[in-house]
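During the reporting period, our protein records have gained a structure token line. One record among many is quoted in full directly below:
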Amino acid sequence: MLAKSFKRTKIVASIGPATHSAAAIERLAAAGANAVRLNLSHDSHQAHAQRLKWARAASGRLGKPLAVIMDLQGPKIRVGELPAEGVDLVAGQTVRFAYGANFSDSGLIPIQYDFSTKVRPGELVSLYDGRMQTVIEAVHQGVVTATVKVGGNLISRKGINLPDTDFSGDILTIKDIGDIAFAAAHDVDFIALSFVQRAEDVSGLRDKLRQLGSDAAVIAKIETRLGVRNLPAITKVSDAVMVARGDLAVEIPPEQVPVVQQQAVRLGQRYQKPVIVATQMLASMAGSPQPTRAEVSDVATAVMQGADCVMLSEETTIGEYPVLAVEMMKRVINYTQEFATLHRPVVEQFSDQGALTPGLFAAAPAGGQPAGGEQPSLSLQQQKAIPASAILLARQVGAKVILAETASGQTARNLAALRPPMPIMMVTHQRRVYHQLAIVWGGKAFCVNDPKRAGAEVVEQLKQAGNVVAGDFIVVASGHRSGVTGGTDTIRVKVV
């Protein structure tokens, strides 16, 4: 009963026109959503502020944490206005791009972001989700000249990808700066940074948030070729990672995407960071009450790999069956975790020298800092040793659950990273941490008023729910060194 009571992999539901109401968001949460994503590429600040209020109210009414993620648009480059019939591009043809150009007057293809200062000859310009490709020949006075390699009919406002281009840390647009200020002024738990290329992009956003007085955590979205190459270093400094498979499949060969997904999950476990797998997980459910078999397998694969979260996008923003999509995803997660062999890391496998796929990543820099920029007082292996001991002890005594008492959330994340077979009860007295723990693999978060009585309160709730009974063992892991991130230093056995 207990194993079925808590789904290990969590669900992120994006909010849009189809779910723009207090009742809709509460139905999503009741159906199994653990976080809501507010996509700042669409809709107004006013609409997102209202959705955030509805999410907080739903969390309170349901008595469960519901993380709020605000997703920045980033330097999403699109084609400007073209004739209604589009423009035919033919292989071998020369085309020219320019910011703000008028195609009818100049023949230049208009772009909505001036990438002429970023690109170099020889780099690829991919159009319309990769359907068309051009290679840059020259850049002069704001005009980018390219040769068409793969042609097609190009229409207005279609996306442009620059997989070879290094943005040199300049990935925040003017819109993003305004959106960051908006998010900082509201009670958000996470901000997702789009098109991350290197660790410094994450650190830069965190610095801006701290200057604005925000304690929101940073999710690094992996959707660029450079982001993949620098994935170990990016994971190390982020609070969480999202594998955004849509743009990623345009930036790198599509056959590499499943491997990147798997390695991202492994790196998340190594550095105790939640990993979200996103894009087209149940895409057909935007218009159908049933998913395809391939989509069900996709979700199940992410669960078996050990992903912390799987995410719904169009399924819950514009889809006809948003609640059914969440319910279906929950059923797949629960069935998979009950009957399939889940990936459980071996502690030694995740040392700093742990093997990953050769050639996939650039060499990660030595050292590095954890999320928040604080230098750890414990090494990575020391941080794993105590949680690993807690899990071993729980196995030996047959504990029903592991109870993680945590102020910062790090104790819970350390335990979750080792993927124990028993659920983790994550207990904190910090409201922000309570919501942030909603996306962590493995159990359920509780918020208590008195840290000294945290364990007793949660055990009583578990007893009332029938999850534990008198005589059951519970292993408690906690940290008693105030202000030390990752300072789990105490393990004890509690008998119900």
